[in-house]
Amino acid sequence: MKKNIFIISAITGIIFMGCHKASTTPGSVDFVTLEQSVINDFVNNVAIGQYSKLTDAAVSLNGAITTLNSTTTDANLLVTQTAWKNIRHVWEQCEGFLIGPVEANDYDPNIDTWPTDYTQMDSLLASSNDLELADIQSLPQSLRGFHPIEYIIFGENGARKANELDARKKQYLVSLAADLLYNNVQPLYQSWTAAPVNYGETVLKAGNGSNEYATRLDFFLDVVGENGMSGICGEVGSGKMKEPFDSKDPKLCESPYSGNTSIDFRDNIIGLQSVYLGLSGGKGLKDLVAAKNKNLDNQIQRQITAAINSFSNITDPFEKAIIDQRVQVQQTMSQLETLQSLLENDLTVFLQENMKD
Amino acid sequence: MKKLYIIIAIGFFVGSFSMCHKADVFPDNGYDERLSGGAATVFDVSSKAFTNMIEGLDGRNAIVHEMGDAAFERTFVAPPSPVFTGLGPIFNNISCVNCHRNDGEGIPTAGFSNSGLLMRISQPGTDTHGGPLAIPGFGAQIQDQSVFGAKPEANIDISYTDVQVTYPDGSVTVLRKPTYTLKNPYIPLTTGYMLSPRLAPPLVGMGLLEKVTESTILSFVDADDKNDDGITGKANYVYNPYTKQTEIGRFGLKANTSTLAVQIATAYQQDMGVTSYVQTEESAFGQEQLNIVTGDVQPELPDTILNHVIFYVKTLAVPARRNVTDENIKQGALLFNQVNCSGCHRPTMQTGVDITLSQISSQRIHPYTDLLLHDMGDGLADSRPDYLATGREWRTQPLWGIGLLQKTTGTPYYLHDGRARTAEEAILWHDGEAKKSKEQFMQLSKAERDKVLNFLQSL
Hints:
In chain A, 70% of the residues lie in helices and 0% in strands. Chain A is an all-alpha fold. Chain A starts with a helix and ends with a helix. By secondary structure, chain B is an alpha+beta fold. Chain B has helices at 2-20, 59-72, 96-99, 206-210, 214-219, 260-272, 303-314, 327-338, 405-409, 423-429, 435-443, 446-457, and strands spanning 41-42, 90-91, 117-126, 132-133, 141-142, 145-146, 155-166, 172-183, 194-199, 237-240, 245-248, 318-319, 349-350, 364-365, 373-375, 393-395. In chain B, the strands form 7 sheets. In chain B, strands 3, 4, 5 and 9 form a 4-stranded antiparallel beta sheet that branches. In chain B, strands 1-12 form a two-stranded parallel sheet. The longest helix of chain B is centred in the first third of the chain and has 19 residues, at 2-20. Chain B is globular, with a radius of gyration of 23 Å.
């Protein structure tokens, strides 16, 4: 009998030893190297890469508006509208990682405050107040940024014609585009790449003398949390979509003049996906997750894809879909809810368990 | 006979134990000292550390919290507008978050879109409820922004001069002393007015502080300074415009507001020009420019939204302390008590009962305040009385979350007007009832002072 016990304990011991793998212990050298390369690629390919694209898009929009101002034709208006949609495309993807200067230095509220204050905007346009850049940049945020530009170039029902753009509208437009580019988008890019802020450097040094992130884990939690992936997921799913959906009120939709609302939402989730997968062949969070828990990585990737694809079921403009396609809108919100829970619970716990630095 | 002895013996036995009982909080051991907010504590060190919902809210409560959160971030626009209407005609900012950045504090500038400092104004005397006496045409707060067509009441000019402080050990710290000037009043403003700057404070733990009972707050008062530590403390009693009662003041930098509902409704009214069922009058009431906007419906803020925001603020969690086992920080905590910072910044107390929210009910909390008014000396005086608060008195600012301000605001600011750029500068501004503590702090060695500051960073 005693012998049996000895044998059983020996077998048990062997079984447990079999579970031990030296290569996957938390904080092992390979994983730490991987953590750092994910950080490097996030900074260079995702953050700086996307902000660089945003700068290009703002230059294009500014150029299009300058041309529209001097040669006010429907063709040039269309070019401007396309440039606006393009910069929204990039910007909404940048919202997948609202960490650092974009919020701390108010670039986000300066360019993307919603709703627009069109009572004041109409009064301003009807007045004889100066509309130079210096005047525009001190206006309340509800009179600056993407949405006032949208209001002017698309008109209330998206039916703007070039001949409706009078001198004051055009002057306002020119100053808004300059405010966007020179006061916000360019400084945002520089805040990640150059002194005095150089937030790229701050992130790169996470866990290594960074004054913002004492550990690399702090950084990853930030980019997965409220300021990053799960934050934008929640903002779209339980905020921007749910509020107009619950009240069946199209006036609560984000980009009503251009009919761009659904595209904005989808781009937000694509932005989140870029953080997870990485961009331009670089490493992303997926590499960290897959290294230790392939099943979780599969789950997250699948759920992100499912959420993004579900937007194509909403075929009407979102302002209409909240009335006519409630099932489809509900399905997308459910997909986002599942995704958010995966990020907030599973992914966050994964990081906390596997990163010891 | 035997029975009687036994009964008497038992009587003594029980009696002797009940003598030991003091209506006070339980001793420290057995509690996790990281839990600054008791069950309403959250573990988060990110820039969103102040924005978390307390754990365990049930479905409906969680939804109301979320809706309050959304409303808190909402940008208000000039009426008429189908959504979020009611801004102005005069205001200080256009949303709650523009001043309470990440539900934290504001930036000490005035008149910009990211400004979080405002100026109270009044003239000598009191109103019918014992509060500050408003100035005709200006009210009791300067709104330095306006909707199109109206004019700001005035602009606020802020300038600083350096003041050098030398420690007994020879080290030097430079403080900046602010000067506030009103410029460009929209109508002539006669001199003799009193100004008081107020920086938007963090929202940390307001739901818990509302639940600290009046008797607990009053138990901290030492009117005759019986323990001879130079600290007396005084409760403010203020008028509640909704209940129409005089109540103990808890909120506001001079404890001039009694409830969260009034605090929030007054912020909507005074800071954004948005009326509600609690504060029904526009901040521009009595001014000619009141009627510059037309098509307005009163009250501007739907009742449900105000209720959601009140519930939201009430159910925000307090961030947990960090590094509590670090030897330096433990010593810093001892020094903090030794120099008697804790005489006003009371570390521990217990909240009263809340029958709807167990997380804030009967919680052992560490707010580091006594919610009382104290004379803070001439350097910090605004010389503008506010109910029972004199021009030299301020409410003890709670210190929980103070170590996270760097994260939540980007650049931290301290004291009622953000003049202090570091916790050390803030300590050096202390005077009046806090004079002894400040002097003892200055007597400490550099290493010891750093321990106190590190302790503050752990809060």
